Amino acid sequence: MDFSVIITSAYEPSTIKKAIDQVVLHNKELWNKMEVIVVAPDDETLKMAEGGLLKLKERGFVNYEVVRDLGKGKSAAINLAVSKARGSILIFTDGDVYVEDGAIKRVEALLRLRPNTAGVSGHVVSLDSRNTLFGYFSHIFCSAADARRKSNPTTPMSGYLYAIKKIQGLFPIPENLRSEDAYISARILQQNLKIAYASEAKVFVHFPKNMKDWINQKTRSLGGNLQLRKTGLFPADSTQYYRKRSIFNDLSMAFYPMKFAKNPKELLFSLALYPLRLYLWVRIYLIHSTNSYKSGPWERILSTK
C-alpha cells in the first residue's frame, strides 16, 4: 500500500459519506495504491461510513477499514488509525470537510517528489458566506493562511488536509494536544525536514457561525500552538518550531483585514475583528499561563456541521 487516507470524525453522520466519496470516487486510478481508514467514536457516524464504503466496495474499492475509537479526542483517534495504516505516506482529513477533486492526488504526488520534504499542507477554502460577520472572518483567515503558507515554508500545516511521510519517532503523539497539526509540523521541522504547500489542493470547510463557537474553536487551534512547549519534546528556546501562530504573528499582518475588505460593510466587519482577536489572545495567554487546557474530547463546534 503506497498511502493511507485517514478520516477522523465524531458525531458527523450527515457529512461523513460525502467526505469519503470525495476522497475515493475522484481517485479511481489510485485505488490499488490507496487505503482509507475512517475513525469515529459514535454509532451513527460509523454506520453511515460503513454504508458508504460498502457501496464503494460494490464498485471495486476494497482497501478500507472503519475503526471505533474510545472518544478520547482527535489525537488519540489519530494514533489508533496510524497504528493500522499500511501506507508509507499518511494523508489526514476530517469527516465534516470536502476535498476538491484531485486534492488527494496533488498532496501525495508533491510529497513523493521531494526527498527532503516530510509534510504537505492543503489549501483551506471557506464554504461560508462573506455577507455574514463570522463567514467574512473565515474568508479573511483562509486568505491570510494561504498567503503565509506561500511565503513562509515553516508555517504549520492545516489539519483539514495534510500529508506526511511516516517518519520514525513521530507517533504516537501526545493525546492531550489541542493542535495536532501544529505539533506534527513542529516535529517535522525539528528533524531538519521541510514542509511544502500544495496551493492547488483545496479542501472546503464550514467555519463557526456564532460568537461562542468562534471563540471555542480559535482558543483550541491557536492556543494549541502555545501548548506545544509544555509537551517537553522541544528545547526551551525552540520557538522557531512551535510559535508560528501567536499575537506577534497577528501584529505582522495587522493591516491585512483592512486590505481584504471590498466594500463598506466588509470594512466594518474588519474593524470588528480587532477587539475580538485581542480578547481571544488575552484568553489564550491566560489559559496558557495557568496550564488550564481541557483534556479529553474537544467541545463540539455545532455551527460548523
Please provide a written account of the structure.
The protein is globular. α1 packs parallel to α2 (43-58) and α7 (211-227) packs across α11. The protein has a single domain (3-304), classed as Alpha-Beta Complex (Spore Coat Polysaccharide Biosynthesis Protein SpsA, Chain A). The mean pLDDT is 89. It has an eight-stranded mixed sheet with strand order 3-2-1-4-7-6-8-5, with helices on both faces. By secondary structure, the protein is α/β, with parallel strands linked by helices. It starts with a strand and ends in a 15-residue tail after the last helix. Helix content is 45%, strand content 17%. It contains eleven helices and eight strands.
Order of helices and strands: EHEHEHEEHEHEHEHHHHH
What number of domains?
1
Please give the alpha-carbon distance between the first and last residues: 32 Å
Strand tally: 8
Q: Judging from the principal axes of the Cα atoms, what is the shape?
A: globular
- Average pLDDT taken over every residue: 89
Summing up helix and strand content along with how strands pair, one would put the structural category as alpha/beta
**What are the low-pLDDT stretches, counting only 5+ consecutive residues below 50?**
none
Fraction in beta strands: 15-25%
Which sequence of strands runs across the widest sheet? Answer: 3-2-1-4-7-6-8-5
The second-level CATH architecture is: Alpha-Beta Complex
Radius of gyration: 19 Å
Outline of this structure?
By secondary structure, the chain is of the alpha/beta class. Helix content is 45%, strand content 17%. The two termini are 32 Å apart.
